[in-house]
Amino acid sequence: MTDGFKVGTGLKQGEGPAHKLFNIPLEYVIRKLSVQTTSAVFHNSVQLIGYADDINIKGITKRVISDVYAELKERAKEVGLIINVDKTKAMVQNKRLGKGGTLTVQDHETEVVRRLKYLGTVISDGNDETEEIRTWILAANKA
């Protein structure tokens, strides 16, 4: 890698070089993680799903998710990327509904939610798609 440089005034999302200055180091970070990125989650205990600056860590246990999150945070810091812990949420998806709570990663407690909107889609901890279907029907009726 080349020598680092500092961006003094910041970049807005959508500006020409902004996506390159973010995506290149993020791809480097993900490749350095001890996560298999070429198979489905049922072949491994964890999987990363990412789009732009949204990264979803999908794992079989809270412990695995916590470990990958901690590693991601450390690797990102090495290249100057910082995870916004205030926007970070966790969800436990299974047939038995969770009770919320927190997921502790290093020194930060992440809120465990029962539903969240990810890339415009509502996801629930019980894999219930009813709310998402209603949202799409309402949007179609408004059109």
What is the fold's blueprint, element by element?
Blueprint: H1 18-32, E1 46-51, E2 54-59, H2 62-78, E3 89-90, E4 102-105, E5 108-112, E6 115-118, E7 121-124, H3 130-142
Parallel strand pairs: 3-5
Antiparallel strand pairs: 1-2, 4-5, 6-7
Overview of this structure, please?
The chain is an alpha+beta fold. The chain is 31% helix and 22% strand. It is built from three helices and seven strands. The strands form three sheets. The protein has a three-stranded mixed β-sheet with strand order 3-5-4, with helices on one face. Strands 1-2 form a two-stranded antiparallel ribbon. Strands 6-7 form a two-stranded antiparallel ribbon. The termini are far apart.
Mean pLDDT equals 75
Oligomer: single chain
Structural class: alpha+beta
Order of helices and strands: HEEHEEEEEH
Shape: globular
Q: How many whole angstroms does the radius of gyration measure?
A: 17 Å
Main sheet makeup: 3 strands, mixed
Uncertain stretches of 5 or more adjacent residues:
none
Summarize the structure.
It is globular and about 50 Å long. The chain is 31% helix and 22% strand. It is of the alpha+beta class.
